[in-house]
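Exercise: predict the fold of this chain.
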Amino acid sequence: MARSSVIVLLLVCLGSVVAGHVVYNSSAPFVVEDEDALLTVPQLIRKYGYEVEEYQVPTEDGYLLAMYRIPSRTNSGKHPVFMMHSLFSSCSDWVLIGPKHGLAYLLADRGYDIWMGNARGTRYSRNHERLAVNSAEFWDFTFHEIGFYDVPALIDFVLDRTGFSKLHYIGFSQGAMTSFIALTSRPQYNAKIVQLQALSPAVYMYRSLSSFIRLGVTLRQEIEAAFDAAGLLEVVPHFEQQYHFWKWLCPAPQQTACRTIIYNVAGANPKQLDVKMLQIFLGHFPAGASVKQALHYLQIITDGIFRQFDYEYLAKNTLVYGNSTVPRYDLSKATAPVRTYYGYNDNVVNYLNVLQLEREIPNVVGSYAVPDKRFTHADFILANNVKEVLYDEVVRNVERAERDAS
């Protein structure tokens, strides 16, 4: 019971979930079925008529990451597209709303070779060359290691397999944020990016308007103590009966408990969130993260500083970093071309935080405010009108960057 309470608390405090509202033309309803909640990402892709290849990518520090590919149907010669998901999620971010809507499918339909990564500790990346998944050593990571090890390993794997020297990078929330860790910590990777499409990049989050997130910040030390006392290393792992649990807790059509959390954490845009889509989503989300990773988020929300993990003991910081001061990420080193995308009703990554990021990186080639003023954080992957108000713009920008790179 204590374990369940802690898991729900962290989900409430940090989850980046879903919301909606219909103002703009929408191509919904989505082409999805209830059973999609119980399928894996490869099963979903095959179900809807696309080829999928499955790979396991090793990192320098021994993690084995799942990578799924939707190969180009046309051998178009276009640069490959690499996609990285958000916190507590997986690469289901890119396909869950089905063909003709999901961003991975939209790009695949235009002849792109799609590669979707899964960060360490998530549902699909729970293996290591030496460490057991239930060991403290396995879970001793934050989003820093995802950016420093996972993202470069996944990029190199795509480039090695395809023979290209560059790729398109699309990241949502944590998936965008960790790209900046890779580009600043390993500047040579800037030359490997055709263009970075940064969807609600979670670099700065201290302006969050969510009372649940603010509560997590206030209770950060108590949350950390509770996890330590319970001996928990992992936050909100995916579990076999997950879909049935959330369906029981949040019965349709009201889905009151889930929607209350969602609207507070991500922002409220109620009419955009389809009842069936929410049920399917909760069969895939959450997909797991480390406790240390969640605490790192609470740190950067509290401090408003984009930096590595603070051990909060001078001796430990000195031992790890060679200095008592925690290193900041130098965003001036992220020289790859970047386009940012933000929503005005995003409770996780406030649009002012995105504008702050834009001022600190040297090569912003575009900034896109989603025209639906009620667009929330989770609308980036689940809104009924996401194709019309966001994805069509992303696809246009990828195509423009591809033409310029050819």
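Check your answer against the key: The two ends are 57 Å apart (CA to CA).
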